[in-house]
Amino acid sequence: QEKASRLSAALFGEDCEISHDQVYELLKYAALGKCHDATQPSWCRIYHQSHLAGVVVIVLHEMSQLHFYKFYLQFKYLRKVFRHRFTLPPSSANFVASLFGEPQNTAQGLTSTSTECIPKSSGLQCDPIIQKYGEEKRGLTSYTLTLEELKKNDYPMKGSPGCKGYMYTECDHQRTDTSPLFGLDCEMCLTARGNEVTRVSLVDAQGQCLLNELVKPESTIVNYRTRYSGVTRKMLLPVKTRLPDIQTRLKKILPHDAVLVGHSLNADLQALQMIHPSVIDTSLLFARNEGRRFKLKFLAKAVLGKEIQCEQRLGHDPAEDARAALELAQFFIEQGPAKVAELNLEMLLAAERLTEVSQDRSVIQPQECKVQKQLGDPPHVSKPCFLDCLQVMGQKPLLLGRQEPDSSGLCQGNMSTSNKQILQRALEDVPLSTFSIVQFSLDSEYIASHLLAGFCEKVSNKLTDMLTIYAGPFEESFCLKSVKKEFGRCGPIRSLTVVTETYQPYVCIQYEVLEAAQLAVESLNGAEVAGSCIKVQRPVTAATLDCDILIKELELDIENEGVIYVAGLKKSLTETDLHEEFGQLKDLETLFLPKDLQSGKHRNCCFLKFQKSQSAVDALEVINGWAMKGRKLRSRNALASGHLWRWIWQMNHGSGKQGGNSLTEKMAPLSDSEQDLRKKVKKLDKHIKKLYRSLQNNTLCVVLFPGMSSVHGSQSGLGLMGIKDGGVNSAC
């Protein structure tokens, strides 16, 4: 079984501010691996990068981290899927370009950038084909895949996990150099269960078509992929042929010593759910360095001089592709490795890709480059654009959004393109691309005017209200010091004031962390404090009416999975002391001891992150058991352990507000435009959900809120990331 890629990042507590250069660093390594001087990012780590199915970057223009937390409940899918979050500096004018590096504007610049990706010819001895097969001609049996190669390249094999129920062709006679060759190719659609066959073609050694059938999948079709498969809904409507029918026909046609030939034939056999022991895979036969593969279209043109998969025709012709793969294998066997190596395919491909890059700069040229050119800004040192290398490697990147190329090759805004239209294009094209940038947008005019007209203040007020509790009533002569001590055991207090407007005195306490305020409500409401049985509650404001719902959703946030909050610590304790104290807890992964970001002093609370959710539950029981034995600790599930913790601190200390507003002061109804924005955000969340679900497993997905920067002020951006697996999320 193919290894799953995995992502790890130390984005816990304070370590969550990432620069645009660091995002570039991540995307470059994810896209290129160890090729072209790409290295592991300094701030996170991708395990098994070579097994990544692709990289998808979703950019939410005109949005910042403020929008994510303002519309936290509306971003229902985002917060339940992406564990890793980080702060970005406010968006620059060329934000999209900063993600992959800025291409040069001149032809000379293009050549100097891209030629770094062209492999240098070092003679036949260094050619990967010669290194693999030698220079002498061999018979076809020398080019069939070994058992180890079949296993490594995910071919269906007898006894392999996931191949239960697959049909065996029973072509198990001894192969010889005169065994018959058959070209095979399938076209697939996307169904509820994954890739399923919609068309199958088989050709013999003379190129005669023996089978060319449409197949109706068993599962519901999600995407016909007509642009590539050529198959439409109308074509499949009258079809009665099912997969078992095709399996039976193939088994009947193939002689017992048949050798199947195809390009990345493992995908075809997996879709056919068939096991065949002897194959020649032309994507591996024409060997390349670093695990890369030539595309069939390129090989057909470079080796056979044939044009296949023409863009003027709707979809691929599987019979044509099967015939091309067969002829490529025959050419290799007849001419021998030395003749094939002399073609210098790497140089031919590099030259072809450079031509494509120069003709198609619009694919990777952001709109902002046009503005810079018009304004005549002085040139600056830019990061090399790694998308050039992708194109040279035959992996054309995809850019979708409200930008279309103009006659000059630069990009301009196309505001008639809706998010829905962008989504439809993305659902069709992104799963088939190795690197994609998908851009969604909201109404920028609304965002600019309303954000600056109090949007930030509303969020700040709501946070302050959630961090504030009122406790009382107390006796007239109550001891304020003992009240502060008792409530301080729940977490760090920012301010404490006595409310004297009431018949009996109350205390207003504003905490620095959400968990502390929630602990106070949960553990001290109805308790006896300073000689009085008191009530503990949050201020009643319009902003806190949905507080219980918000607290529940925060507990379910994947960022807080396996994390607990512990308060009542001695401020003199260091992280080393705490590791010793809590080290006995099972599966403890890391510990975060918050501190004042201005003074650097530690707080009397900490967050503990566990490798497993159940271990966190068990740890809560243990710590609460310690409290029963006299240790003055309080604990609960975390609400804001990672990125949100720092953001709350910044919002809290940027506001001078103390305590909550009255209900009447804040009950002004939402404006029509703000209600409309909530609906747009909710719909945007659903778009991302649909797109994420359409991605192949092992795809790295990064969602970016660029942030905002203007003469009126700025808001930092936000990034979320994870690698999709068969479950909900694979970020570790």
What does this structure look like?
This protein is an alpha+beta fold and 732 residues long. The protein has a domain at 128-352: Ribonuclease H-like superfamily/Ribonuclease H (Nucleotidyltransferase, domain 5). It has 28 helices and 30 strands. Strands 4-30-27-3-16-13 form a six-stranded mixed sheet, with helices on both faces. Strands 6, 7, 8, 9, 10 and 12 form a six-stranded mixed sheet that branches. 42% of the residues are buried. Keywords: Exonuclease, Hydrolase, Nuclease, RNA-binding. Residues 467-541, 562-640 form the RRM domain. GO terms for molecular function: exonuclease activity; RNA binding. It comes from Alectura lathami.
Task: Describe the secondary-structure layout.
Blueprint (H helix, E strand, L loop, with lengths): L5 E4 L10 H13 L11 E4 L6 E8 L3 H6 L7 H4 L2 E5 L6 H6 L6 H8 L13 H6 L13 H6 L14 E2 L12 E11 L2 E10 L5 E6 L6 E3 L2 H4 L3 H4 L6 H11 L5 E4 L2 H8 L1 E2 L3 E3 H4 L10 H9 L13 H18 L1 H6 L2 H15 L7 H9 L10 H7 L5 E3 L2 E3 L5 E3 L5 H11 L5 E7 L2 H24 E5 L7 H9 L4 E7 L6 E6 L2 H11 L3 E2 L2 E2 L1 E3 L9 H10 L6 E5 L7 H8 L5 E5 L12 E6 L2 H16 L5 E4 L5 H11 L9 H4 L5 H23 L4 E7 L2 E3 L2 E3 L1 E7 L9
Parallel strand pairs: 3-16, 3-27, 5-11, 6-10, 10-12, 13-16
Antiparallel strand pairs: 1-2, 4-30, 6-7, 6-9, 7-8, 14-15, 17-19, 17-22, 18-19, 20-21, 23-25, 23-26, 24-25, 27-30, 28-29
